[in-house]
Design a protein that fits this description.
By secondary structure, the protein is of the alpha/beta class. Helices cover 23% and strands 30% of the residues.
Length: 265
């Protein structure tokens, strides 16, 4: 079976909005009317393929995780600029609102989380690796801590499980979604956000100003006070390897840890 058959056909998407998240990361909000049915079943953690085709017919494609929550009107993709990349410089230096691109998906069935999967939920992202984790956080946040009593006695109250998101970047300016995550933490006592800056002092006493290694993980998890049922780690190869090993060293069963990685250090 050809890849196009496995992944579905390419669809035309329109760029509706572009936002600068950090000096090197942009958010692109794209609308894909032809994917309405597929997006209705989007699961937090999935990605889409994006294809750009030059006037001479040369095509380049990359995969980008969806940062928006399932059910969102537009897909949010966060794209980090790679100076030697074929695709990311276009979105940073050329693309404008109203431009059309090609996408297919959503794709992926391993690195996904649904509300029904429960928790406690532990999410760890490095740089732009936060994208699929933001979809999970937003899906988690859509469910209140406990539903109000209902006249329908057949529906028991639903309570969300605690969630911890650890996001690592070089400096505070490089942390995507920082303000949104601070606001969520202030609004939800069952959500904890820890910012890790590797080349800068921590922003808050609860944050971390060092690399996220096994020793740091061993210190952070008892402070959170929950045994994670699901762990998702996303980022560059070296980052994911260090964090995953640190989690196992801290006593988390490897079977609970799911990873997604991209090239580079």
């Amino acid at each position: 079976m050809a890849a196009s058959e496995r992944h579905g056909p390419w669809r035309t998407a329109k760029i509706e909005r572009i936002a600068q998240l950090t000096p090197r990361i942009k958010s692109l909000f794209v609308h894909v009317p032809a994917l309405a049915s597929e997006l209705a079943s989007h699961r937090a953690g999935q990605h889409v393929d994006v294809r750009l085709t030059a006037p001479d017919g040369y095509a380049a494609q990359r995969s980008y995780s969806i940062a928006s929550a399932p059910g969102a009107d537009a897909i949010e993709l966060i794209i980090e600029k790679l100076d030697d990349g074929e695709v990311s410089p276009f979105f940073h230096d050329v693309a404008e609102v109203g431009d059309s691109i090609e996408v297919r998906g959503p794709l992926g069935g391993h690195f996904v989380w649904r509300l029904a999967d429960g928790g406690p939920l532990l999410l760890v992202g490095g740089g732009s690796g936060i994208a699929p984790l933001m979809a999970m956080v937003r899906a988690w946040a859509a469910e209140p801590p406990a539903t109000a009593p209902s006249d329908d006695m057949t529906r028991p109250p639903v309570a969300s499980s605690p969630a911890l998101l650890i996001c690592s970047a070089r400096t505070a300016a490089d942390l995507p979604f920082y303000a949104e995550l601070l606001a969520l933490e202030a609004a939800r006592p069952d959500f904890t956000f820890i910012a890790v800056t590797t080349r800068e002092l921590p922003l808050r006493p609860t944050d971390l100003g060092r690399r996220l290694d096994a020793a740091a993980i061993a210190n952070l998890l008892p402070r959170w006070g929950h045994a994670p049922r699901h762990v998702y780690v996303c980022g560059a190869n070296q980052f994911v390897e260090a964090v995953a090993h640190g989690m196992v060293d801290a006593g988390i069963p490897a079977a609970r840890i799911k990873t997604e990685r991209y090239g580079g250090a």
